[in-house]
Design brief:
Layout (H helix, E strand, L loop, with lengths): L1 E9 L23 H12 L5 H8 L4 E3 L3 E4 L2 E2 L1 E2 L4 E4 L9 E2 L14 E3 L4 E3 L4 E5 L3 E10 L4 E13 L4 E8 L2 H15 L1 E4 L10 E6 L14 E6 L5 E2 L5 E2 L13 E2 L8 E4 L2 E2 L4 E2 L3 E4 L4 E5 L11 E2 L10 E4 L15 E3 L34 H4 L4 H30 L8 H13 L3 H9 L10 H7 L3 H10 L5 H21 L1
Parallel strand pairs: 10-27
Antiparallel strand pairs: 1-13, 1-15, 2-13, 3-4, 3-13, 5-9, 6-7, 6-8, 9-10, 11-12, 14-15, 16-24, 16-26, 17-18, 19-24, 20-23, 21-22, 25-26
Helix pairs in contact: 1-3, 5-10, 6-10
Length: 505
């Protein structure tokens, strides 16, 4: 088998909608489907090839145009595996678990594990780096050619992958003899400046493709007679009646046999209808399993099997179906803690914005040439703006809120301050007040006022006066007097956490 590897750099913003619908909100994909590169090659070569060669190259599945994933440092990025979980109030770079490897004897219920779902990572090291996939949003208007102005009530928005991002993809050819004949023509058709995605006749879709021998994650051997099948690409399987199914067999996953352990597997699904440009209509819906999904399969240890990355399922010529068996990043210790960590936080004290890892992002020029705060170009470039600074400060404040809530919950639990009484309904009522009362001063009055406060009269008064509970809660709320815009958020989070603790008690 021959594998041709390529690098795709975005020379302009690129629109790759998740859905084919033309109305309503729409998001862009965070990768480039292989069908785009198949289309580029077909546009250049289809009319020149003999019928049998065109059939083999574009329709047989013996030549596969893979998806282009966001990448950096000559290493192809992968979608975060759905088996990775981290504690709700922690971070994946501190504590990370592989769910199906957590022993039954380890109680992780108090951790409130949260699934990792979004983002591509560079798994070349044990601390996997997040590859930033930046996007832009633009509001457009339909154009009326007759009166040469914008059409009334025809506004719409485009979300796009941002110029400068880098993606890696490959083309696999099964037949070595056919590869020798077609390699030069395929490379010639793909390499160069091309256009992909929507609105290619406007300002979108320009990319540069070049050959690059990058590195990537490989398959490994199974342990304890269990095979983990990681979906590097989107997977589409058909049942015996030719209908899409979300429950493939072990054989459809490329294994010689075995049984899928569904309770240990983590899959996410998608459905869309592709637009056929040649026929000017939609094809049948494609229903499948998303990138990053993980199947756990039990096999017989004596079963002969070759564990190498491969393509499975339907539509392999368009990049669907690539899987990796037993990747290293899905291994864990005896307690289920992952051997890898996900490094998401680029706001550390020892890092500056320009030091952050990214998908080889570069708008050209030296760092000194880039727009700075106060420069008129800053709003366009995205390097520095009031919005970015606001979001950075807000993220830091939210981190402080979660820390304050976590510290308070742990302190009260250690002191057994709310043990022995029924308090879950009290905390849910507090959360409801904090959700509905917008003004901070009005919220404090609703909680603590001597005449109308929820905690200072009626049935709740005696419970909260006992053991200094009201005083402790007042002290927590008082911390946010200088930042009233974050107070409601903090009270809502504290009330929710305490309600769960009290319910458990």
């Amino acid at each position: 088998m021959k594998v041709l590897k390529f690098k795709c750099t975005l020379l302009s913003d690129v629109i790759l909608n998740r859905k084919s619908a033309t109305t309503g909100p729409n998001e862009t994909l965070d990768f480039i489907p292989g069908s785009n590169f198949l289309g580029i090659a077909a546009g250049a070569l289809y009319s020149e090839l003999e019928a049998k060669d065109a059939l083999t190259l574009f329709h047989s599945g013996k030549v596969r145009f893979g998806d282009a994933n966001p990448s950096m440092n000559d290493f192809r990025g992968l979608k975060v595996p759905a088996e990775m979980f981290y504690p709700k109030l922690s971070k994946p770079d501190k504590e990370l678990y592989i769910r199906y490897l957590i022993p039954a004897t380890v109680d992780v219920t108090p951790l409130q594990l949260k699934q990792c779902r979004n983002g591509f990572y560079d798994f070349s090291e044990e601390e996997a780096k997040l590859i930033e996939t930046k996007t832009d949003f633009a509001v457009k208007s339909a154009y009326d050619r007759n009166v040469r102005r914008s059409k009334d009530e025809q506004m719409f928005g485009y979300q796009s992958l941002r110029k400068g991002l880098v993606f890696y993809f490959s083309v696999e050819i099964d037949d070595d003899r056919f590869a020798e004949e077609m390699e030069g023509r395929l490379v010639g058709a793909l390499v160069g400046n091309k256009r992909i995605g929507r609105s290619r006749t406007a300002q979108y879709g320009l990319v540069k493709i070049e050959k690059l021998d990058y590195r990537e994650v490989g398959s490994g051997e199974p342990k304890d007679n269990k095979v983990t099948v990681y979906a590097d690409g989107r997977l589409i399987f058909l049942d015996k009646n030719g209908m899409p199914t979300f429950q493939p067999t072990a054989e459809q996953l490329g294994l010689d046999g075995g049984k899928i352990v569904w309770k240990d597997s983590e899959i996410r699904t998608f459905c869309y209808a592709p637009w056929n440009f040649k026929r000017q209509c939609f094809d049948t819906d494609r229903c499948g399993i998303e990138k990053g999904s993980v199947f756990v399969v039990e096999i017989d240890g004596t079963m002969p099997q070759s564990f190498e990355s491969r393509y499975v399922g339907a539509y392999q010529n368009e990049g669907f179906g690539r899987v990796i068996y037993n990747p290293d990043f899905l291994e864990a210790n005896g307690n289920g803690e992952a051997e890898y960590r996900l490094d998401n936080d680029w706001n550390g004290e020892d890092e500056t914005p320009d030091d952050r890892p990214h998908a080889d992002y570069d708008r050209g020029g030296t760092p000194d040439d880039r727009p700075h705060a106060g420069d008129d170009r800053a709003a366009v470039s995205g390097y520095s703006s009031a919005l970015v600074n606001y979001l950075r400060e807000r993220r830091a404040s939210e981190r402080d809120i979660y820390k304050a809530v976590n510290d308070c919950v742990q302190k009260w639990e250690k002191e057994r301050l709310f043990k022995g009484d029924r308090f879950a309904s009290q905390w849910w009522a507090i959360r409801s007040l904090a959700t509905s009362v917008i003004d901070f001063e009005a919220l404090k009055k609703a909680l603590f006022d001597a005449e109308v406060g929820y905690l200072t009269h009626g049935v709740a008064k005696e419970k909260w006066a006992d053991r200094g509970r009201l005083k402790e809660f007042r002290e927590f709320v008082k911390k946010f007097d200088r930042e009233p815009e974050f107070a409601r958020h903090a009270i809502v989070n504290l009330a929710a956490e305490m309600a769960k603790k009290c319910k458990e008690d």
